[in-house]
Design a protein that fits this description.
It is rod-shaped and about 170 Å long. It has a domain of 113 residues. Helices cover 85% and strands 0% of the residues. It is built from three helices and no strands. InterPro entries: HLH_DNA-bd_sf (IPR036638).
Length: 162
Protein backbone atom coordinates (compact mmCIF):
# COMPACT_ATOMS: atom_id res chain seq x y z
CA UNK A 1 0.00 0.00 0.00
CA UNK A 2 1.52 3.37 -0.97
CA UNK A 3 1.08 6.70 0.79
CA UNK A 4 -1.91 7.74 -1.33
CA UNK A 5 -3.74 4.49 -0.56
CA UNK A 6 -3.09 4.97 3.13
CA UNK A 7 -4.67 8.42 2.88
CA UNK A 8 -1.40 10.15 3.72
CA UNK A 9 -0.71 13.65 2.55
CA UNK A 10 2.96 13.70 1.62
CA UNK A 11 3.25 17.41 2.36
CA UNK A 12 1.80 17.26 5.88
CA UNK A 13 2.88 13.78 6.95
CA UNK A 14 6.28 13.65 8.64
CA UNK A 15 8.90 11.20 7.39
CA UNK A 16 8.83 9.61 10.83
CA UNK A 17 5.20 8.48 10.73
CA UNK A 18 5.60 7.46 7.10
CA UNK A 19 8.50 5.19 8.10
CA UNK A 20 6.47 3.73 10.96
CA UNK A 21 3.53 3.04 8.65
CA UNK A 22 5.88 1.42 6.19
CA UNK A 23 7.07 -0.95 8.92
CA UNK A 24 3.51 -1.99 9.64
CA UNK A 25 2.86 -2.42 5.92
CA UNK A 26 6.03 -4.46 5.54
CA UNK A 27 4.99 -6.78 8.38
CA UNK A 28 1.54 -7.24 6.82
CA UNK A 29 3.11 -7.92 3.40
CA UNK A 30 5.54 -10.37 4.98
CA UNK A 31 2.69 -12.31 6.59
CA UNK A 32 0.61 -12.24 3.43
CA UNK A 33 3.53 -13.53 1.35
CA UNK A 34 3.72 -16.44 3.76
CA UNK A 35 0.05 -17.23 3.06
CA UNK A 36 -1.20 -15.65 6.28
CA UNK A 37 -3.89 -13.13 5.54
CA UNK A 38 -4.95 -11.72 8.87
CA UNK A 39 -2.18 -9.63 10.41
CA UNK A 40 -4.09 -8.96 13.62
CA UNK A 41 -5.00 -12.63 14.05
CA UNK A 42 -1.38 -13.70 13.50
CA UNK A 43 -0.09 -11.19 16.00
CA UNK A 44 -2.61 -12.44 18.50
CA UNK A 45 -1.79 -16.10 17.72
CA UNK A 46 1.95 -15.42 18.17
CA UNK A 47 1.07 -13.76 21.43
CA UNK A 48 2.91 -10.61 20.38
CA UNK A 49 1.27 -7.76 22.19
CA UNK A 50 0.32 -4.68 20.26
CA UNK A 51 2.66 -2.77 22.55
CA UNK A 52 5.65 -4.67 21.13
CA UNK A 53 4.73 -3.81 17.55
CA UNK A 54 4.16 -0.22 18.56
CA UNK A 55 7.46 -0.22 20.48
CA UNK A 56 9.26 -1.47 17.35
CA UNK A 57 7.32 1.03 15.30
CA UNK A 58 8.20 3.83 17.73
CA UNK A 59 11.84 2.75 17.76
CA UNK A 60 11.94 2.89 13.97
CA UNK A 61 10.16 6.24 14.05
CA UNK A 62 12.63 7.58 16.60
CA UNK A 63 15.61 6.38 14.55
CA UNK A 64 14.11 7.86 11.41
CA UNK A 65 13.36 11.09 13.26
CA UNK A 66 16.92 11.33 14.59
CA UNK A 67 18.31 10.69 11.12
CA UNK A 68 15.86 13.23 9.72
CA UNK A 69 16.91 15.83 12.31
CA UNK A 70 20.62 15.21 11.66
CA UNK A 71 20.07 15.51 7.91
CA UNK A 72 18.02 18.68 8.38
CA UNK A 73 20.77 20.14 10.58
CA UNK A 74 23.39 19.30 7.94
CA UNK A 75 21.22 20.85 5.27
CA UNK A 76 20.58 23.85 7.51
CA UNK A 77 24.29 24.27 8.23
CA UNK A 78 25.08 24.06 4.52
CA UNK A 79 22.36 26.59 3.74
CA UNK A 80 23.67 28.89 6.47
CA UNK A 81 27.19 28.60 5.04
CA UNK A 82 25.87 29.36 1.58
CA UNK A 83 23.85 32.31 2.89
CA UNK A 84 26.86 33.61 4.82
CA UNK A 85 29.07 33.30 1.74
CA UNK A 86 26.41 35.04 -0.33
CA UNK A 87 26.19 37.78 2.30
CA UNK A 88 29.95 38.26 2.24
CA UNK A 89 29.90 38.39 -1.56
CA UNK A 90 27.07 40.94 -1.50
CA UNK A 91 29.06 43.08 0.95
CA UNK A 92 32.09 42.78 -1.36
CA UNK A 93 29.97 43.87 -4.34
CA UNK A 94 28.45 46.75 -2.36
CA UNK A 95 31.99 47.92 -1.47
CA UNK A 96 32.99 47.68 -5.12
CA UNK A 97 29.90 49.68 -6.13
CA UNK A 98 30.73 52.29 -3.49
CA UNK A 99 34.35 52.45 -4.70
CA UNK A 100 33.16 52.63 -8.31
CA UNK A 101 30.85 55.51 -7.41
CA UNK A 102 33.82 57.35 -5.88
CA UNK A 103 35.86 56.75 -9.02
CA UNK A 104 32.95 57.86 -11.22
CA UNK A 105 32.57 60.98 -9.09
CA UNK A 106 36.28 61.72 -9.47
CA UNK A 107 36.10 61.15 -13.22
CA UNK A 108 33.06 63.41 -13.52
CA UNK A 109 34.89 66.14 -11.60
CA UNK A 110 37.96 65.67 -13.82
CA UNK A 111 35.70 65.84 -16.90
CA UNK A 112 34.13 69.04 -15.59
CA UNK A 113 37.58 70.51 -14.88
CA UNK A 114 38.79 69.51 -18.36
CA UNK A 115 35.70 71.04 -19.96
CA UNK A 116 36.43 74.29 -18.08
CA UNK A 117 40.05 74.14 -19.24
CA UNK A 118 38.97 73.45 -22.84
CA UNK A 119 36.62 76.42 -22.64
CA UNK A 120 39.40 78.61 -21.24
CA UNK A 121 41.83 77.42 -23.91
CA UNK A 122 39.21 78.05 -26.60
CA UNK A 123 38.87 81.59 -25.29
CA UNK A 124 42.67 81.95 -25.43
CA UNK A 125 42.69 80.56 -28.98
CA UNK A 126 39.85 82.88 -29.98
CA UNK A 127 41.73 85.80 -28.43
CA UNK A 128 44.96 84.76 -30.16
CA UNK A 129 43.14 84.48 -33.47
CA UNK A 130 41.72 87.98 -32.89
CA UNK A 131 45.17 89.33 -32.06
CA UNK A 132 46.65 87.52 -35.05
CA UNK A 133 43.93 88.94 -37.28
CA UNK A 134 44.67 92.41 -35.92
CA UNK A 135 48.39 91.86 -36.49
CA UNK A 136 47.76 90.75 -40.08
CA UNK A 137 45.69 93.90 -40.66
CA UNK A 138 48.35 96.00 -38.97
CA UNK A 139 51.02 94.31 -41.10
CA UNK A 140 49.02 95.16 -44.23
CA UNK A 141 48.66 98.73 -42.99
CA UNK A 142 52.38 98.85 -42.14
CA UNK A 143 53.29 97.48 -45.60
CA UNK A 144 51.02 100.08 -47.18
CA UNK A 145 52.57 102.76 -45.01
CA UNK A 146 56.08 101.52 -45.90
CA UNK A 147 55.15 101.51 -49.59
CA UNK A 148 53.77 105.03 -49.24
CA UNK A 149 56.97 106.11 -47.48
CA UNK A 150 59.13 104.45 -50.15
CA UNK A 151 57.14 106.25 -52.82
CA UNK A 152 57.62 109.55 -50.93
CA UNK A 153 61.33 108.84 -50.58
CA UNK A 154 61.49 108.06 -54.27
CA UNK A 155 59.58 111.23 -55.12
CA UNK A 156 61.85 113.29 -52.88
CA UNK A 157 64.86 111.58 -54.35
CA UNK A 158 63.61 112.26 -57.86
CA UNK A 159 62.93 115.91 -56.94
CA UNK A 160 66.31 116.28 -55.36
CA UNK A 161 68.02 114.85 -58.41
CA UNK A 162 66.12 116.52 -60.80
Amino acid sequence: MDDSEAGLDAETESPVSVEGDRLTDMLRDLFKSGGLDDYDEIMEHLKIPDGFVYAVKNCVEQMANEKFIVERRKMGDEKIEILNAAGRYIEHLEKRVKDSKKVIGGLEKAKHDLEKEVKRLQEVIDGAEGVMSELVEKEKDDKKHIQDLEEMVQDLSDQAMG
